[in-house]
């Protein structure tokens, strides 16, 4: 019984008191009141203070409210990285809505499906994309960068929309094994928990600069956007395409004195091959997720960037970005673990009859706690298949990750691959079933 209680409770003792009644936009608004004139956002030569960002987002939010946006209303965003993209995401949340990122680089068929499946009636985009995207006639599209001060008539005051933690913040589409992508709808309470945990773990302050470089159709981008803005740090948005270019990243890190950024391990490896990488002495935090982190990449970071902490995070889009964390250190082992559950989340490694497996035995990783998505957008049967009733806590749900894992004797989790035919390429979830469905 003691082993069972360790597996179920001891290693899941993550209860933490966060202000989960507050939404991320309220946390950003509180920061605006605290440091209105501090630098908030930079892109190329453009700069916005916290007050300027807030006022621009508020004008757009009041416009969105006038268009009928409110709680659980989904709003599409199709944009290249820019100041407008950040303003749009903050504004949608302020209006009470949830954003749906539509990457302009996605194939037309996939975008068409996402437009239809999401049911969005409003799309925020950019002039250059209006002709390029397969926007259905039923959707009203608005170019954020249209000429003239088109939002001048709208108020700069915080909208003050009331939301609950159950309301959606964003819906991100992931590859679907049935051949169709599926939208994972994530709740405000889960996002606030994830961001508050990250701040408690890695503490940003006004001296920090975070780079936003992850394509916004990946949920890593969610913390890149909002964590700095709720903590008084500065957000620097990388130019479109630059996330693939190590030399440009080195230059950006040094020019903007970036302290914190994310890499998928394959891109981190490319970054470490750049001759100038050791010049990035201001880097304090490198966060990895999206695919397994190899020990040799970890050792290269320690050698070339000795000032930087390296953190390995793990989590599916269905559970508000990340669910486990590990601070990398040289343990002399042949793999880097994914660590232990973050605040207010639980991990279970179970057999096929949902019984907990002892340390050292590989099974399927299940997740529980406040981070779980509400479910898949308009896919009740798929939601019921992946989000199941917990046999351990009455009224709780478990999310079946499809990932294999095992506990070490110390309760640290090692990732052990996939159960199914999902593969990861540069952090992109690819269901081979989706490819097969197109080939048939």
UniProtKB/TrEMBL annotation:
Residues 29-377 form the AMP-dependent synthetase/ligase domain. GO terms for cellular component: cytosol. PANTHER family: FATTY ACID SYNTHASE, NONRIBOSOMAL PEPTIDE SYNTHETASE. GO terms for biological process: amino acid activation for nonribosomal peptide biosynthetic process; secondary metabolite biosynthetic process. GO terms for molecular function: phosphopantetheine binding. Keywords: Phosphopantetheine, Phosphoprotein. It comes from the Bacteria. This is Amino acid adenylation domain-containing protein. Its cofactor is pantetheine 4'-phosphate. InterPro entries: AA_adenyl_dom (IPR010071), AMP-bd_C_sf (IPR045851), AMP-binding_CS (IPR020845), AMP-dep_synth/lig_dom (IPR000873). The keyword Aminoacyl-tRNA synthetase does not apply. It comes from Pseudomonas fluorescens.
